[in-house]
Amino acid sequence: MKDSPGLHLKTYTFVLFIVLFAPLGNVLLSKGMKGMGSAKDWAPGDLFHILFRIISSGYIWMGIACLLTFFVAYMLVLTWADYSYVQPASSFAYAVVATLGYFLLGEAVPPLRWIGIFVIGVGVFIVGHTHPRTTEKA
Amino acid sequence: MNVLEIFLVFIIVAAGTGGELCISRAMKVVGEVHDFRPEALVRFVLRAIRVAWMWIGIAMMTLAFFSLLAMLSIENVSFVVPVTALSYAAGAFGAMMFLHERISRQRWLGVFIVCVGVTLVWLSRR
Q1: Residue of A83, A92, A103, A136 for testing the chain B interface, max B β-carbons within 10 Å
Q2: Which residue, A115, B5, B7, B8, shows the most beta carbons closer than 10 Å to its own?
Q3: pTM of the full structure
Q4: Which of A59, A68, A79 should one mutate to test binding to chain B, selecting the residue with the greatest count of B CBs within 10 A?
Q5: A100 phi-psi bin (left φ>0, alpha ψ -120 to 50, beta other)
Q6: ipTM of this predicted complex?
Q7: B114 and A91: CB-CB below 8 Å?
């Protein structure tokens, strides 16, 4: 396939959707699950009750809606770009999820975790400078 | 990490990566999308759900999703989500073996650095 600017622009646009909606979905799921108690304490007999509480949670459904948006964008981008390109490129989501966790959920994010996220970003930068497709069109 | 947390992370990584690979394979069968109008997207979805790999992928990703919910009830999201990036190594190998994608040295280097970052995030828990 030709290395056209259009291909890169289209890919970057969909990756942007991915890195926004996936973290937001995960943060909303986390907010919903914080009210369910720790899975370490779940008794097998309580699982049905917990499942009911999960599917009754507004945060869980908002999280699922965000993840579905992410999923559609992800499916579409995979129709023209390599999986091994899209997956690393979408790892910007890790920085976004830590930022949202810090600001929206008040999570403590230690310096080492931020460094780790920065290193992930460096890896993403390197991956982002490879061509989106390495296989021939069917 | 106790046994339950290690088990949950394993399921999230293994089932999540396996599910994404299956869906990626299904998308390659469906073909590239050029038309983004709603009716065209509905036709795209209808084509996609006729591919068996899609359903296998959805089943695996559902398993990964409920494991993620359980893990989020134990740990902070800023820890859980980066740790699940262990799937990068599995994903790169899987894409090479299962999807026959050619992965350049530069892309391998990027994946390796991402994994180093994930390790630092994991160490930040202590």
Answers
A1: A83
A2: B8
A3: 0.76
A4: A79
A5: alpha
A6: 0.76
A7: yes
